[in-house]
Amino acid sequence: MQKLAKVDEMNAVLEELSSQHLKGKVRALRLSLMALLTGGHILLEDIPGLGKTTMALAFASALGLSFGRVQCTSDLLPSDITGLSVFDRTEGRFNFIRGPIFNNIVLIDEINRAMPKTQSALLEAMEERRVTVEGVTYQLPEPFLVLATQNPVEQVGTYPLPESQMDRFLIRTGIGYPPEEIEKGILRQGSIRDEIMHIPALVTTDDLVGAIAAVKEVYVGEKVTDYVYAIIRATRNHPLIQAGLSTRGGIGMVDAAKAAAYLHGRDFVAPEDVRDVVHAVCPHRLIFRPEHEGVDKEHVLNAILKEIPLPLT
Amino acid sequence: MVRIDLLLSGLTACIALIGYLPLQGYLDPFARFFFPAALLAAAYLQVKGRALPPRVLTPASILLFLYLAAQFSLSRLVPVTSDLLVVFLGVRLLGERIGRNYLQAFALSLFCLAASSLYEISAIFLVYLFSLLLMVAVALVLLTFHAQDPAAVLPSREAKKVLTVAALMPVASLPMLLFLFFFLPRTQYPIWNFMNAPAGKKTGLSDTVQPGTAQAVSEVKGAVLRAVTPKVPEQQLYWRAVVLNAFKNDAWVREPAPNDAPAVTRGDAVLQEIYPERTATQYLPALNVPRAITDLRNDASIDGVFVSRRPLDKKVRYLAESVLADTLQTRRIDRDFYLRLPERISERMRGEGLALARSGRSSVEKMAALEAFFRGQRLTYANTGLPVGGDPLDAFLFEKKRGNCEYFASCYAILLRLAGVPSRLVGGYRGGTYNDVGGYYLVTEDMAHVWVEAYLDGVGWQTVDPSAWALGRVRSRQVRGLAMYADMVGFYWDKAVVTYDLDKQLALVRNAGNKARDLRLPPWFGKVMLLTVPVFAALLLFVLWRRQRPPTAEARLLRRMLRLLAKRYPGEIKGDEGIFELSARLNDRHLARFAALYGSAVYRDRPLTRAEAAELEEIVREASQDRP
C-alpha cells in the first residue's frame, strides 16, 4: 500500500491541536477536519460558551488559513455576508468589498438567528462555492469550510433551519462539556483566546489541497457501498421515520467515510469507517413522523446499525 | 465466610480416606497404621498452621520406599505397590499445602482406589468412585482459588455458588459414564485376587464329610448364592450341590456314580436364575432336586449333581430347573456300592445297625425304627462342643449327644447301611432368606447342610434329614432391614455390572445382526439403498461442509484469525466490530498487519493474490505461535 499524500501532516495537526490547545475537543476537531477535507460543511450544535469559536479560530490558525466570522442577528442581510459594491469617487466606479465569506474558514455564529433570506444566501454560497453579487460571480477561496453554530436550547427569536437546509451540512455534531480534569485545567488557565491567535501554521495550503485531492482518491468498494445502501434503506423503511436518508445524505456518508479512512492512513474505505461517521452525518437528515418527534434520533440509528452486520468478508 | 484452605484440606483428607479405606483390608500392618497416623499428624499440623519441610519429607520418603521395596517380589507385586501407594499418600498429606502436593494426593488416592479393584470388585467400589470423582472435581476448582491466593476467603453465598458449579461438573459427566459402560471391556473377577480369594474364604460346603475333626465349626456368614425364583415352602428349601457316596479313610467322599439307571423326577418344574459367589468348588447348587442346568457349560451326573466345566473363579450365572420332590426315582442301583461301610465303626453302632438288619423288617420300617432310635437318644443340634477323639460318631450318639448336621447325617447313613438299606449323603444348603424386594433367595455359608438319601426298592432315593430329629435347632439369624437392602444392592451390582461381560456385549451385537438378517425387504431394496445411501451421505456431508466452511479463502483466513484472537483475548471479541476497529482497540500488531493486507484486498473489490494469501497465512501462523 503506497503512502497517502499528506496524511501524516493532517494527523499531526489534529494531534497538536487536541493535545496542546484544544483539550477535550478531539472529536469535534476531527470531524471539522473531515468536513474540510471532503469539501463539506459542519454545523456545531451546542450551548454557547463551550469553545466553538475558540476551536474554529485555533483550527484556522493551525492550518494557516484565513478566518472570517459572521455573528448572525435577525437584521443581518445577505450582503453583510457576501460583501457589497461601494462607489469609489476618485476612480468613478463601483468597487466590490468582499464580505467575510471570502475566507477559507468562515464561522457563522448562531445561524438560526439570521432570517431565512440570509440563511438561504449563505447556504447557496456553501453549496455553489461562489457568490454572485450584482451580476458578477466571485469564486470562493479553496479550501473552503463553513463552521456554523446554533444554540438548540434558545428558541425565541430564531428561525430554525428547515430539514432541507440542514441537509446541506455534511456533519452536525455537538462539542459537549470537556472532561472534568481538562475543564479544571481550563479554569485554572483562563481563556486562551489570545494564545491561539498566535498558533503557528502547521501546514501549508498546498498541503491541504494535496490532502483534499488524496481524500477524493480514496477507494470505495462494493462491500462498503452495499453497507451504506443497507443503512439508507433501513432508515427509509423504519416505522418511526417519515423520510429516511436522501441520496445526498448517502453521498455525504461515503465522503465522510473517505475522510475517516484517509485519516486512518488507508486508501480504501472499510465498513467501520462508515459506522464511525454515521452518527455525525445522519441524524440531522432524518425526519421522524410527527407522533414520534420526541424520539432520540441517535437511539433509533443505533438500533438500525445493530441490525445490519458489518461486512467483514 | 468460608476459608478456601480449610475447605481444601478437609476435602483432601476425605479424598485420601477414600483412597485408603477400600485398600485397608489388604494392607500390611505397617501401611495400615501409618496412614491413619499420618492423617492425624496432618490434621495437627493444619491446626498449628505448620507443615513438614521437603528436607525432612524427601529423605523420609526415600527411607520408606527402601523399607517397603525390600519386601518386593514377583508374587507380591500388587501388595507391595498398594503399601507404597498408601504410605506415599500419607506422606503427601504431611507436606506443605501447595497445589502440587494437593494434586499428587488426589492422584495417589485415585491410584489407591484403582489398586483396590485388583483385590475386590463390589458395589461399594461404585460409591467410592463417585464420591472420589465428586470431591476431586470440587477440590480442583477450589485449588484454582488457592493457587491465586492461599489465604483466599469467600463469602458464604459465593462459596455455595462455586461448590454447586464444581459439583455439577462430575454429575453432568454421569451420562457419559453410563454410555461408556456398555462398550468398555471389563473383568468379572478382581485381577490380582482371583487365585487366592476362594482359598482365603472358609466355605461351608466341602466334598468330604468327616465329623469329629474339629471341636467347633466357625460360622461363616458369607453369601453363597442368590437365586431369583418364586417363593418356595420353607420345608422344601434344600439346595442340592453334591452327593457323597463312598468312604475314604473313614470320611465320606464322592466317587463317580456307579452304573445306576438314570433318575427320574416327576412334578412341576421350578425355574431358578442363580448367581453363585466365587468359590473353589465347581458344584452348581440348585433347589433339590435339579433336573437340568443351562446357560453355563456343565456335566450332569445321574445322582442330580451338576459340575461346572470351568472354575467358578468369576461371577457367573446359570439357570436351573428343579422339581421340588423328596424322592428321586430310579429303577436299579448298584446296591453293593451303596452298602459299603467305613473301616471303623464302634461296637455300639454296629450292634444297633445289625440288630435292625436282622429284624427282617422292610426298609420303610427300618427307617422308622431308626428315626425312633434317634429321637430316643435325645440328640442336640450344635455347632460347638462337638465330639472329637477316637470315635466321634459313637461319642455323638451315646455320650455327648450333641453335634451338627454332619454327625446326624453320617450316623444315620451308616446305620442305614448297617441295616441293609442303601444310603448316601447329600451336601448343599438348607434354607435361604427371601428378599421380598428383589424377589430372590440369599443363601449364606452358614446354611451349609448335609442330609441323607435312602434307597427304597420300587420307590427310589428318599430324602431324609436326620438333623430335623434333634431336640432343638438353633435357627440362624435372618437378614432383615437395612442388611437386606444392602445385599440387594450388591446383588444387582453383580447382576447388572459384574456379570455384564464381553460375551453379553457380543451377544448384543449378534442379536442386532440376527434381527437385521430376519428383516424382510423387497429384493430391489438392497441395490437401491446401496446406491442412494452413499450418495445421500456424501451429499449431506458436502452440504454440511459447505455450510460450515466459509465460501472464500479470505473468509476462511479471517475466521482463523478471529478464532485465534478470541483465544488470546478471551471475552474481547464481540463479532460486531470491523477488523481495523478491533486492531486499534486490541493494539495487536499481528492483527494490524493482517487487517492492512486483508482490507486492502477485500475492501478494494479484488481477490487476494497468491502472495498476499501466503503472507496472511504466515501472519496467522506467527500470531498463533506468539504468546503474549
Number of E-type strands of chain A: 11
- Fraction in helix of chain B: 40-55%
How far do the termini of chain A sit from each other? 19 Å
Number of domains of chain A: 2
Spatial ordering of strands, largest sheet of chain A: 2-5-8-1-9
Low-pLDDT runs of 5+ residues of chain B are 194-203, 474-479
Mass-distribution shape of chain B: elongated
Radius of gyration of chain A (CA) equals: 20 Å
Number of strands of chain B: 20
The overall average pLDDT of chain B, rounded, is 82
Structural class of chain A: alpha/beta
Helix content of chain A: 40-55%
Number of domains of chain B: 3
* CATH topology call of the largest domain in chain A: Rossmann fold
Protein name (chain A): ATPase AAA
Domain AAA+ ATPase (chain A): 38-179
GO molecular function, one term (chain A): ATP binding
Family (chain A): Belongs to the MoxR family.
